[in-house]
Amino acid sequence: MKPEAYPAFESKLNHQPMDASSSQTKNKWLIPTGIVLIVAGLLAIGAYQAYRNPKPARILDTYGNQEVDTVDANGKATTMSLIHHVPDFSFIDQDGNMVTQKTTEGKTYVADFFFTTCESICPVMSKEMMKLAARLKENKDSSVIFVSHTVDPETDSLRQLKDYAIAHKADSRQWHFVTGNKKELYDMAREGYFVTATKGDGGPDDFVHTQNFVLVDKYRQIRGYYDGTDSTEMDKLYKDILLLNQEYAWKDGK
Predict the structure, then answer these.
(1) How many whole angstroms separate alpha carbon 93 and alpha carbon 159?
(2) In Å, how far are 30, 35, 254 from 39, measured between CA atoms?
(3) Burial class of 53 by CB neighbour count within 10 A (0 to 12, 13 to 18, 19+)
(4) Rg over CA atoms, the chain
(5) Is 0.90 topped by the overall pTM?
(6) 236 SS3 class
(7) Which parts of the chain are beta strand (E)?
């Protein structure tokens, strides 16, 4: 026999009114608990990112910045720091390709100045650059670009630069030996990279000769200078490139 149903009784059980004090207590704790869970989640994410991308042991300095005296909106004298960025440029490399700021955009690069017929510091510098490129390749880092500017564009034709690149086993996708207008090259040396304190106009009698390598970050800021004839300095450059990669990962959270 089918059991008799008691709808009125069931309805009473299913629709018992909730105690008001119970509801208020539950709501009282619901919001704080949710906030605690959100904060805990954010802290956990931050801790995980810090574990994956710890802050580098040392943040590299930036160079070429200028302090400018100015007056604020209230007429008060103040000092403002102007961050230096390597200016736009346009040169031609050993393969006849244009090399501009777009070539290095978003990438770390090392710049230097040389000439192919140099018999003093340039051969040493180019060998050190070649060793640096090989060392980075061994570390599976092919993102760094090298830009070697000739200071003797009258002599260093594209053919001359190409032969020099081949002699130094340069990967033309990574290492650009560039030429162009002498004044523009010299302006970059003096005002873009600050590799020499000598004055000049880029004319026939002007000459720049420096062993400095310049480390530039992906934001076009100068992050270091290194003696390209000194193996100890070149080891420091290699380590600073690794530090810069850590800095990117730390800042970008990747």
Answers:
(1) 10
(2) 14, 6, 21
(3) middle
(4) 31
(5) no
(6) helix
(7) 66-71, 77-82, 90-92, 98-100, 109-114, 145-150, 175-178, 212-216, 222-227
User: Sign of the CA dihedral 134, 137, 142, 144?
Assistant: negative
Cβ-proximal residues to 194 (8 Å cutoff; 6+ apart), any chain: 63, 64, 222
Question: Tokens at residue 194, please?
Answer: 């600050």
Using one digit for the tens of pLDDT, what is the confidence trace for 145-183?
999 999 999 999 999 999 999 999 999 999 999 999 999
Using the structure block, give the residue that is written with the tokens 């105690």. 19
Other CB atoms within a 10 A radius of the CB of residue 252 amount to: 8
* Residue recorded with tokens 């961050």: 83
Structure tokens at 251: 């800042």
Structure tokens of 155?
A: 């002599």
Cα separation, 154 vs 166, in Å, equals: 20
Could you read off the pLDDT of 97-128 as tens digits, one per residue?
A: 999 999 999 999 999 999 999 999 999 999 99
